[in-house]
Structure formats: C-alpha cells, structure tokens
Amino acid sequence: MLVKGTGCYVTDQHGREYLDASSPNLTCGYAVPEVAHAVGEQASRMHGYDLSVASHDTAGALAERVAGLMPADLSRTLLTNSGTEAVEAALLIAGMYAGLRGDPRTRVVTFATGYHGSTVLARSLSGLAHLDHPFHQPMPVTRVTLPSPAREMRSPEALDMLLAAFRAALAGDGQEPPLAVVVEPLINVGGGVVLPPGFLSGLRRLCDEYGALLILDEVSTGYGRTGRMFAFEHEGVVADIVVTSKGLAGGYAPISAVSVRESIYTAFGRDPFVGGLRFGQTTSGHGIACAAALATLDLLVRDDLAGRAQRLGEVLMDALRELAGTRGVADVRGMGLFVSLEFEDETTAVAVVTAAQQRGLLLRRQGAVVMAVPPLTIDETTLDLLVERIRSAVREVA
Ligand code: PLP
C-alpha cells in the first residue's frame, strides 16, 4: 500500500521507500511542484466542463499543443480519459470515416500479442489469451503473430519476414479489404518487444498500397519514453491516427488524446448527423487533467526529457546487456527508458521482481519479461542504483 511519492521514489504505509521503475506513466516523477501548482490553479479557477456543452480554454490549449507536437497533417485532437477510450474512439472514427467516404470497411489488422485496452472493442483486437471475453467479436480482426523468441526481431531477416506477414494479413485471402492497421511501435504488455528498424515505414507503405488507415497506438511510448517525443519519429512515419495517453499528464490525472488527419476531421464535419469528432465522455478533456498535461509537456520540452531518455536509455542498456545469456536471462532489449529483461521462465521473472522489491526497487512484469520503466527525469546516480538493484536481484535468484 503506497502512501507517498517524491521524485523517482514512492513510500509504502510502513515507511519503506522504493525506487519506482514500474510504469510508462512516470514522465517526470512524483510531487513535481510545477504540475501540482498547475492542477491547484485549475481547480480553483475552472475545474472542468462537459465539452459536449461548451469548451474551455485549458482543453483548447492542450488540443492545440498536442497537434503542435504531431506531424503537421495530424492537426486535430480529440481528448479522452484513458488509453482504452482513445483506442476505442480511434476505431470508431476509422470505421465511420470509411463509411463517410463511401468505402465501408471494418476489418482490422494487428499483432496477435498487442494490447490496446480493456473495453470490448479495444480488447477484441488482441489475441492474448487472458484478454478473451464472452461476447461476439465486434469486427473482423486479422492477427499477425510475432516470431518467437522476441530476440529474433534483431535477426537480419526479421524486417522482411514481418512485412511479408503484414502484407498477407492486409491482402486477407478472400476477406473484406482492410479498414486499418493498429499497432504499438514497441509492444508493451505483449512482452516489451522492440520491432526491427524500418518496420513502421514499411507498414506505412503497405497501408497506402491496400488503402488501410495506419493507427499507431503510442499509449505507452508517446511523450519521450523511447528517446523521441513519439516513437514514430525514429522513422519519420506519418500515421493517419495516433493514440496517446500515459506520459501525457505523467500519471497526475487520467487523460488521453486521439490525433487525426485534417482530412478525417473534415469528413466528419460535413456529415449532418455526426458533425465533428463527438466520441468523448462527460469528463473528457477535464480541466484538471488538461492542466496537468500542459504542465507536464512544458517540463518535457524545457528539460528535453526525450533526449534524456535516449541518452540514459543507452546507459541502462549498456549496463544490463551483459546479463543476457547468463543467470536465466534470455534477452535484454529496449528503446529509450523502456528496457526489458526476458527470463527463461516466468517463475524466475516473478522471483526477480520480488527480490528487486526487497531491495527497494519496483519493476513491472508481463509473463517472463521484467521491465524497467523509470521516470524520464531520473538522474545518473539514481540510474546507477537502479542497475545495481536489478543486478543484485538477478544474482540472488538465478
Ligand atoms: N494501448 C497500449 C499500448 C497500452 O500499453 C495500454 C495500457 O497499458 C492501453 C492501450 C490501454 O490504456 P489504459 O490502461 O489507459 O486504458
């Protein structure tokens, strides 16, 4: 039970302190005065407003700020409350846009081990067994299975193999033409899998060839985490829709954004019944969440946290890479400050997370993969401590 957070550390109810490297939410750490002040100021001025009735200046400012960070054509921002809601909205927007263009399609192509959220539509994308649900599949989904083990992604054949699999999935073997491809630039819940360089740009070309929209789910990679403001910047790819959330307000408040091309927005604008991207909830674009996001983005830019993630991510990778092939560590991989250690089995991974916790370090685990995802504001000394605690936990267990 946690009761307090300061900088990179959280404290539990017994007063024990932990270095927190457990979440892509952690943009600038805990109790940052600038964010706390912005939240307080917003609460005492205009805490929020139902955007279906009227807009407010903080939501407008954030929508413009997000658009300003995106490639020029992704000029419109819909604000929602969570990664799930943003993915759900992106799928609805894509499907309705296809209808408005007179080319109705519903089939979505995605990774079998992707994760895009917890509601029925978002969850139905994933082929992960624990995300099965008792309802009918709401849309046809063609899933591409990643080669296993994930370190295969660094083999010289990986890129061609992956693009060939997506080409086959898009072609669809007699199925309806594809509406969209939805992928994470780095597969988070599905095992911290880093995809081969060139994958996103290859996918962009394939989407154009098959008339499918490219929807990038940057919920866990957006806002500096991978060493660029957005992971798609590593390849200069322009998607049709980009979904972001976790890093946006650094975990200070629930918020997410769906960034869409001007042409998609315009298509909705012309429809007499839909009229604009109306996919929000009562609390979408909530004033306090928008204020937290604007303050977080100020810090991200002022302190070049993306550049910092790139630089310190390389330090972290260099320090942990030597563990690969020893002590049950099957692979070490990462992008920016999102580093994953894959163990030979899940039992070892569970034991490493427990041993790390005993040493005052919180890590994240998905199956046999243990992830180190610290605040982007972490300094060199604290990063050394993170490495030392991981090494010590691995040494004890394996
Ligand atoms: N998409 C990705 C890539 C995620 O990693 C997550 C959450 O882990 C989601 C979507 C869902 O976001 P949320 O938990 O905010 O609904």
Whole-number average pLDDT?
A: 95
Regions with little confidence, pLDDT below 50 for 5+ residues: none
CATH fold call of the largest domain? Aspartate Aminotransferase, domain 2
Question: Which range does the strand content fall in?
Answer: 15-25%
Contiguous helical run count: 11
Outline: globular
Overall CATH class of the largest domain: Alpha Beta
- The radius of gyration over CA amounts to 21 Å
Helix coverage percent: 25-40%
Q: At the fourth CATH level, what is the homologous superfamily of the largest domain?
A: Type I PLP-dependent aspartate aminotransferase-like (Major domain)
Number of domains: 2
Strand order of the largest sheet: 4-12-11-10-7-5-6
Structural class: alpha/beta
CATH architecture of the largest domain: 3-Layer(aba) Sandwich
How many DSSP E strands?
17
The main β sheet shows up as: 7 strands, mixed
Distance between the termini: 28 Å
Sequence of secondary-structure elements: EEEHHEHEHEHEEEHEEEHHHEEHEEEH
Name the ligand types: pyridoxal-5'-phosphate
Keywords: Aminotransferase, Pyridoxal phosphate, Transferase
Protein name: Aspartate aminotransferase family protein
Pfam family, one: Aminotran_3
InterPro entries: Aminotrans_3, Aminotrans_3_PPA_site, PyrdxlP-dep_Trfase, PyrdxlP-dep_Trfase_major, PyrdxlP-dep_Trfase_small
